[in-house]
Design a protein that fits this description.
Number of helices of chain B: 9
Oligomer: heterodimer
Helix content of chain A: over 70%
Structural class of chain A: mainly alpha
Number of domains of chain A: 1
Distance between the termini of chain B: 51 Å
Order of helices and strands of chain B: HHHHHHHHH
Shape of chain B: globular
Strand content of chain A: under 5%
Order of helices and strands of chain A: HHHHHH
Shape of chain A: elongated
Number of strands of chain A: 0
Radius of gyration of chain B: 19 Å
Number of strands of chain B: 0
Strand content of chain B: under 5%
Radius of gyration of chain A: 19 Å
């Protein structure tokens, strides 16, 4: 029903994009601070702690709207190759965030005010930027139907997308 | 009123006048004739390399769309941090001028990438967007945002916020957040229309 409602669906998707602006915007600044590009004179802990709340609010909204978008077209989304890659990348980004947080907590006292973080923290920040760039690209590609089960697909794509033989509803 | 009192606000007054002119143009019959005159430009855009690539390779178009979104995230981050600081809700322990100057650089980078990727995307779907009212609303919001940021917000805050009325600072921050979120929302809405 959500998918059939022109305004509701579009508002949910627009909110998804606006919350992405908020969460990724904050995440970019945290990662760029660690790389010494954004606000290098401000201690890293201040940037990380103060931007964490708006980042999590943005992520919360993004997850809620993302779940609603999935719920609107569950079969097509679940069988989308891009959606599946996106989930794997989200998992990778989550693990990377945990490792990043742990490493930062361990060592931040020794480099907090330095313009650049140590090598291992910088690698985590770079990896985070790569993960999220790929997640956004995959998210955008979900809208395209090149590898949808409703079209004829090669064996490998069919297996990865979870296409069911004889399936008539998508 | 002595002219010297106005002199420090001349750029802001000129920009407000320009925005009023643009709005007057948008809501008058001049808009229709200008719109007709722009048709050859949009027809030409579809024949450019960008237009051909955008129409032929869907994957290239999608990747540029994603770059556009990422640029908007960078721009949005810069706006939220700077305006959040002006509103006193973010990074209160960091001086305003540091936040404003450092976020502005990344805002400009985000804006340049968003405009470059936006031109590419517009070439690929030029005739579609030409007939979409929401595209023109986005262009209006973008123009207002750029003028507001470079000719009102930045000059107004250049000498620090200590001497300014706190309510003026808050109003500038809310206006900035509103205009850029409108740009993003109308931009997303283009995809649903037509």
């Amino acid at each position: 029903m959500l998918h059939e409602s022109y305004y509701m669906y579009n508002w949910v998707e627009t909110t998804h994009v606006l919350s992405l602006m908020m969460s990724l915007g904050m995440l970019f600044f945290i990662d760029l601070r660690m790389l010494g590009i954004a606000l290098p004179k401000v201690p890293a802990t201040i940037i990380a702690r103060r931007l964490r709340l708006p980042m999590f609010i943005g992520f919360g909204l993004m997850i809620i709207t993302g779940l609603l978008l999935f719920y609107a077209i569950p079969v097509r989304s679940a069988q989308s190759v891009w959606f599946r890659i996106k989930l794997l990348l989200l998992l990778g980004a989550g693990v990377n965030a945990l490792v990043f947080h742990y490493r930062m907590k361990q060592s931040v006292a020794s480099w907090d005010s330095a313009p650049q973080a140590p090598q291992n923290i910088r690698s985590g920040a770079l990896l985070s930027l790569l993960f999220w760039t790929s997640i956004v690209i995959c998210g955008r590609l979900i809208a395209y139907d090149w590898y949808d089960c409703s079209r004829e697909q090669s064996g490998l794509v069919s297996v990865f997308a979870g296409c069911i033989e004889g399936q008539v509803q998508f | 009123m002595p002219l010297s009192l106005l002199s420090s606000y001349l750029r802001s007054i000129a920009t407000i006048g320009l925005i009023a002119l643009v709005l007057g143009f948008v809501f008058s019959s001049l808009r229709i004739s200008a719109w007709d005159a722009l048709l050859p430009l949009f027809e030409w855009m579809e024949t450019t390399w960008f237009g051909v690539i955008g129409k032929t390779w869907g994957a290239a178009f999608a990747v540029v769309e994603a770059m556009h979104l990422l640029a908007m995230a960078l721009l949005g981050g810069a706006i939220i941090i700077a305006d959040g600081r002006l509103l006193g809700v973010l990074l209160r322990d960091v001086p305003v001028q540091i936040i404003l100057s450092k976020t502005h650089r990344l805002f400009v980078i985000g804006l340049c990438i968003a405009i470059a990727s936006g031109i590419f995307m517009a070439c690929g779907v030029a005739m579609k967007i030409y007939y979409l009212p929401v595209y023109w609303f986005k262009m209006l919001a973008l123009t207002a945002g750029v003028l507001f940021t470079f000719f009102i917000r930045r000059p107004l805050l250049a000498d620090g916020i200590e001497k300014l009325n706190p309510w003026l600072v808050r109003t500038v921050a809310v206006a900035s957040l509103t205009v850029w979120f409108t740009v993003a929302a109308t931009g997303r809405w283009i995809g649903f229309s037509g």
